[in-house]
Design goal:
By secondary structure, the protein is of the alpha/beta class. The protein contains 10 helices and 12 strands.
Length: 256
């Protein structure tokens, strides 16, 4: 059985890690490089760094920060926000990132995603997919893709878009439930499982983790390959090593 992963997400604004609820009310948590070093020591399998204002401010991702993180940790890490071209992808990867995450860019310019996959390999391209539940029958999965922090609907069905992104060359999907984000009542297991069963690439469950049982549910019932956490680490101070030990107690194969 493939090993499951525990990934820490660091949303960054003005060179500070922040945490909010449904992408709003973000409060500062700490320095991203210092926190990265701490989470690395505490057993995180991977990390994701999102520069949450780069795209809105029409500026590139903070490459100096990417370099500093690359010197501090020795596990795979993904960067997103401010990625608007294949050249931006190249700069981030050369600075030390192992993967780049694309979200709004993939919807607006899918040809750039395909070009990035050809240039660097699918393993380097992660689709950030924000999903919102909808009763509209126009969306067969029951969920619509939204962009720009959940503010802009796209008219795309979540499962259909996930399949299309894989066809373009995406090698992993980070599926975030806008409705559950920051609420800490558990991941949206319905759409997580639907996407995981629809695509042949790893799916990371994101949005809603409030305790270790939520992680277990995402990995087992949601069929996710990895669970992404934020508040569990930033606010509660949970060690990834301890969380993984508890998950192993449920018989879930976690990376050492």
């Amino acid at each position: 059985m493939l090993m499951k992963r525990l990934i820490v997400c660091l949303d960054i604004r003005d060179r500070q890690v922040t945490k909010g609820v449904r992408f709003e009310g973000n409060l500062p948590v700490g320095d991203p490089v210092e926190l990265a070093g701490r989470y690395y020591q505490e057993g995180a399998d991977e990390m994701v760094f999102y520069d949450i204002t780069a795209s809105a401010e029409a500026r590139p991702i903070d490459i100096d920060m990417v370099r500093e993180v690359g010197r501090r940790i020795f596990i795979p890490f993904t960067v997103g926000g401010g990625i608007g071209s294949v050249a931006d992808m190249r700069r981030a990867l050369l600075a030390g990132a192992d993967k780049v995450s694309v979200n709004s860019l993939a919807v607006a310019h899918p040809e750039i995603v395909a070009a990035g996959a050809r240039e660097f390999g699918s393993q380097c391209i992660v689709l950030g997919l924000d999903a919102r539940k909808t009763p509209d029958p126009a969306f067969p999965s029951g969920y619509e893709v939204v962009v720009r922090g959940g503010r802009t609907p796209t008219g795309l069905d979540v499962v259909d878009w996930a399949r299309r992104a894989v066809e373009l060359g995406v090698g992993e999907i980070c599926l975030n439930s806008i409705d559950a984000d920051g609420v800490r009542q558990g991941y949206d297991l319905v759409i997580t499982r639907r996407v995981a069963e629809a695509v042949p690439v790893p799916v990371v469950a994101s949005g809603g983790a409030g305790n270790v049982r939520h992680l277990r549910d995402a990995l087992v019932e949601g069929r996710a390959d990895a669970a992404l956490i934020a508040s569990l680490a930033h606010i509660d101070g949970n060690s990834c090593r301890r969380l993984k030990d508890e998950l192993r107690g449920w018989g879930i194969p976690m990376r050492q």
